[in-house]
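EI: anyone free to look at a 290-residue chain?
SC: sure, send it
EI:
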Amino acid sequence: MASDFLWSDIWAGGLIGFREAVEAALIIGVLLTWLARSERGDLANWIWKGVGAGILASLVVAALFAWIWGGVESFNEHEAMFEGILELTAAALLTAVIIHFIRHPSAAELEEWADEAYRTKQGAGLFMISFLSVWREGSETVIFIGAGTEGSGAILGVLIGILMASVLAFGFFKKGLEVDIKKLFKVTNVLLILFAAGLVAHGFHELQEAGAAPIVVEHIWDVNPDVSDADAASGNYPALHEKGVIGGIFKALFGWNGNPALLEVVLWVAYVTGMVYLSKKLGGSNNTSE
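SC: here you go
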């Protein structure tokens, strides 16, 4: 994982940060709103304690991730293998997140959690729900960003995404802003499907680099021409080059490769096709049951 600042990573970081923060913000918002309506505001401090603990735990995960990654990068012969396994693992986790929200596209489940926590009349229960919600989303963000981006721009993107999610949640709960959560999750799910497909394709590419996966056809297209050292230093690349204006954004968001192997493209298309089919099937059955 490079330390360079890449503007394209802001898009990927913003998408992941927003998507993950929205879920946590909705859970916290539902809990606080439920307490206010039930005149149990005295328990709100347990929720905020859980939020704080969740943030700290997420930072611990980030530190551990950076430490492990730094150790692997010192062994060049294993780096490609580790990156491939990490990206495929992140894709699997992201797929589980997508499927979860295909099955539960509304805020109804969040209200059930709040109701259960309230009925227990225990601050510890509220603490655990808020803590686990924030920690889970924070940990997922660390893994997805660490696996799918290459520059420090992703960190800024995550912060922007979290800020946007917080503003949305504030407007939703405090200002009566009408937000169709179901449609919002549908749109972000489409973007996450494309992002996960990129993780699958690039993860497989890293396994190919490590010699652990077949190549078959090395390049089915190549829009990554060599550039001079001067152009590289100034960031002057062709538009569709992986480091170009368009290609860089596509790489960060959708796993674009300027010179992919055949199996990379096959896996990308297969993943997107399979997830679109699964989304329609699960979404349809969910609508039928409502």
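EI: Residues 7-179 form one domain.
SC: 👍
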